[in-house]
């Protein structure tokens, strides 16, 4: 900011105003109770420390209101009525009540009830002619002159009262993340709060709109110091992932609040907040589309269970407990994995072409009818000729080929059409079977045998097993799709055992999942969030696409961080496999976790790994975070993955520290007088 001067904090326990501060900039209170700094002119003689006390009183008021809301939820009873007749309804209400009670809990008391305040401007203020007012924005309509506290949940004192705290996902909170001097969106002041555990310790103001008659030096608008925001970003990260509702940046908020119907792909370097943005998007969508997603559900897919454990606390902290977290393997956990493939075989089994091969193998079992079908009922004997039966079969097979329906549905349709043909003959003979009788007829022995001969029942595991062991079937199904060498590779990678006892490999599992969908379809979710999506094989992408066929996707990843042999090299191809070729690509290039020293050094590899990506930058620096050690022999210096390197040093947080023992395999087993002797052995 032109002309702005930093205001150093006063001694602990004192209040004061830095004499070099410029008038009209920000108000900031110290990080400890009793320590206050006012940088700039006091607003109408306001005592910053007194205002901090007022904010603390408001926090206590909010906590009392939250406790009242929880007590009210605990007193709420079910709908009443017959406990047996309304069993399902009562159980639903009971679960909903318990979830609300948990959502209204204040946790361990360390999370602040609110983290920010928005003061909307009055209509009579006079902004500069070249500054947009933003008051025509929908978020500002009807809120002129009002203030709103923003938190992780809605808090009110009594039903119908104005909220004491507004949920961060509400439209009224949008300007907190989006407003700026060029477009204040009707906001006069944006206030951030600092907390030490449960105690409110500081606040920081950013004036986005100047009242009438007010002027600032150099004609500039008021801008933030960013002290609290910077401190939150710089706060050490340890333990499970935390939510970032207080520090969401404008480009991140654009992604979080995108419409449910929009599928997004977020490309971001390490520390740019991809995962956090995806989780906050899930929370926002559940808030904005509660009724729809309550039925369809939201699924978060992570690379492994350790990762899911790391992110597990984020959504509950935001009051959302219904989101399912899963790994890819968990989606097909009913298939036992006991085998392993070579890299070449696993890559081929995960290739998108396998979907075509599997579909052809399934359709290979269809056999056109070779004779008439005779059906005997109490009313008489009816015969459907071979030609008519063949026509019914051809119609069903055409629908299957056009993917109008799945294999199992086609089988049922053929049985129903055959039974209806018998009904026509019965009606011509003066008999009029009911719809129920026709459905029974479709399940009769004669109809079932005829359908089984033409359209045999299929099993997904059995189909994959036959495909990988029957060279003739594989040759027919893979003709023009896989070459001879690839077919031999698949046959050599067949799992031992039968269809029920086979030791399937992880790649086999998704072939079976593909076959299951071809046969009977797959259930879906309203929204799917996929992290580390660059590591998915095409067949794994298809497995996820099936689980949100009627919903939308949020895809998170980094093409420069691929770790699998089949890792994606372009989002265009990966999104096509995920069934969303038209998804919007959003790129995050600003890092908030990795220091600039490390990110800049690692960025040198980007031109060799993914030259088309934009080099990331970092919002934070950490002196000493990176130490460069010149060496004439890199191979001798770098530790090989999975093997401890013998020697007296180890690498910790970018620096080398001396080992206290002489060899990594000879660590002292106990303390006491024998410790030195044990170390010398």
TrEMBL record:
Task: List UniProt keywords, sorted A-Z.
Answer: ATP-binding, Helicase, Hydrolase, Nucleotide-binding
- Report the PROSITE patterns cross-referenced here: UVRD_HELICASE_ATP_BIND
Q: Which Gene3D superfamilies match?
A: P-loop containing nucleotide triphosphate hydrolases
Keyword match Ribonucleoprotein: no
Give residues annotated as binding ATP: 268-275
Q: Per its record, what are the GO molecular function terms?
A: 3'-5' DNA helicase activity; ATP binding; DNA binding; hydrolase activity
Ranges for the region named Disordered are 635-681
Provide the Gene Ontology terms for cellular component.
Answer: cytosol
Q: Which residues form the UvrD-like helicase ATP-binding domain?
A: 247-595
Compositionally biased residues, Basic residues? 652-681
According to its UniProt entry, one GO biological process term is: recombinational repair
Q: What is this protein called?
A: UvrD-like helicase ATP-binding domain-containing protein
